[in-house]
Specification:
Distance between the termini: 16 Å
Helix content: 40-55%
Structural class: alpha+beta
Number of domains: 3
Shape: elongated
Keywords: Membrane, Transmembrane, Transmembrane helix
Strand order of the largest sheet: 1-6-5-2-3-4
Radius of gyration: 29 Å
Order of helices and strands: HHHHHHEHEHHHHEHHEHEEHHHH
Length: 449
């Protein structure tokens, strides 16, 4: 009997497990451990799903052809584990959504298209009231993205030590420069304005033109160098410790500390001027352009692979900056249990003149978003196993799925046996599969069991 309306045999025949057929022999031979995805060796090619090239795995593993195979594999893989072990499938997710009454559907359809709509069009939705304590502290001029970083606290501590050492070095060099140059400026001022003779005093009658221009040029370069230090370099350690407008990394770490699950909030940079004040739901050229810019920026910034492979501190770039005050605020609200932690998982917020704060439902953006989510869950599971020194279990897990699904006759009873076999495999290695999956991925492994 096909599981949840999906014929597993047909999925296998169509190449749904092509990714595992490719991966299994390499896992068994040990070759995959040498050429598997390494973040430092990234392909410059743009991936077939439209994500940024700097976060896409190597060409030989995820080419356009094998990428399509991975898509099919993840679909059949999702269906199997949604019923017996892991995360819910897209069908199940849709079935879990609350059903609209005929009255609600009628009002929605009658108001969804015109200017008098009560709700923004999909994938936008009005931000829930539970987020008001958080959105009340945000600027309406910016777009915000939050996500939960589940990297180990020890890893985040190492990452944060880099800017600490860098800013400490800059601060020390600046103090040394002040100690070295301030006496020179004191003598220069006393000679120029008070008339005292010292080592900085020059007499034109005693200098040739060449000597004069050399002295003037040297002093000009000194003034310029110190000016650049004071204007562009000195603010680095100051903002790092005492940032006022949007907070500072030090104030954030002081308030939050280092946690295994941390909330990161990014704020849009100058590109948001093309979106702010424009009705993104308008069908006019200006509205279409603003909506396209917003969607492109948000999609690149919320790519599951980007969020999975980079710790939150490294998600800053030319388009997004971290909002330290918002991160402290969000963490405080979660600690007080005013807002659940899950509310900040890949949350996108922007302000609209009519609807107020609206969120973008990234799960409603089509099949690619579902594929991205499945891919994120698989890699999250792999990274969690690697963090506890059990990465070999990930590859044995793949081997079991590959072997069992190639045997044929993959009935519902057989699927239950495979699910139990995987649980036993993890139990033999001291890992409770259900609890570990829930902790690493965030979905409920008991769904469908």
């Amino acid at each position: 009997m096909p599981l949840r309306g999906v014929n597993v045999r047909q999925a296998n025949t169509a190449g749904g497990l092509g990714f595992l057929r490719y991966l299994g022999p390499k896992v068994a031979s040990g070759a995959y451990k040498q050429d598997r995805y390494v973040p430092s060796k990234l392909s410059p090619d743009v991936d077939p799903f439209g994500h940024s090239p700097e976060i896409w795995p190597p060409r030989h593993l995820f080419s356009t052809k094998s990428g399509c195979q991975l898509s099919l594999f993840l679909h059949s893989f999702t269906v199997f584990f949604s019923s017996h072990i892991g995360f819910p499938s897209s069908r199940q997710t849709q079935s879990m959504a609350p059903k609209k009454t005929s009255k609600g559907a009628k009002s929605s359809s009658s108001s969804g298209g015109g200017s008098g709509a009560l709700e923004p069009p999909k994938p936008f939705r009005v931000a829930p009231d539970s987020l008001k304590p958080f959105t009340s502290s945000l600027s309406k001029k910016h777009v915000y993205i939050s996500h939960v970083d589940q990297k180990p606290a020890s890893f985040k501590r190492k990452i944060f030590s880099v800017p600490i050492l860098l800013n400490a070095f800059v601060f020390a060099m600046f103090l040394w420069r002040m100690w070295y140059i301030i006496p020179y400026y004191v003598e220069l001022l006393s000679s120029s304005f008070l008339g005292y003779e010292n080592s900085t005093t020059i007499r034109m009658a005693d200098l040739t033109y060449r000597q004069f221009f050399m002295v003037a040029g040297r002093r000009t370069l000194t003034f310029l160098f110190d000016f650049l230090l004071a204007v562009f370099v000195w603010p680095w350690p100051i903002e790092f410790v005492f940032g006022r407008k949007h907070g500072s990394p030090v104030s954030w770490r002081t308030a939050v500390g280092f946690r295994d699950k941390e909330i990161y909030v990014r704020r849009s940079r100058s590109w948001d001027t093309q979106v702010y004040g424009v009705d993104i739901f308008s069908e006019k050229p200006q509205g279409n352009e603003a909506r396209s810019i917003l969607w492109g920026m948000v999609r690149n910034a919320t790519s599951p692979m980007l969020l999975q492979e980079k710790t939150g501190y490294l998600t800053m770039n030319g388009d997004w900056d971290l909002d330290w005050k918002a991160m402290v605020k969000a963490t405080a609200l979660v600690d007080k249990k005013d807002i659940p932690l899950d509310a900040f998982r890949t949350l996108v917020l922007c302000h609209h003149d009519k609807f107020g704060w609206i969120a973008i439902d990234m799960n409603a953006s089509g099949e690619s978003a579902q594929e991205d989510e499945r891919r994120r869950q698989v890699f999250a599971f792999r990274d969690a196993l690697a963090a506890v020194g059990k990465e070999n279990l990930f590859y044995r897990w793949i081997e079991v799925i590959q072997f069992e699904t190639q045997q044929g006759g993959f009935t519902q009873e057989r699927q239950l046996e495979v699910a139990q076999k995987i649980r036993d495999l993890f139990k033999e290695n001291g890992v409770d599969f259900d609890e570990f999956w829930k902790e690493a991925v965030g979905s409920d492994p008991s769904v469908g069991i």
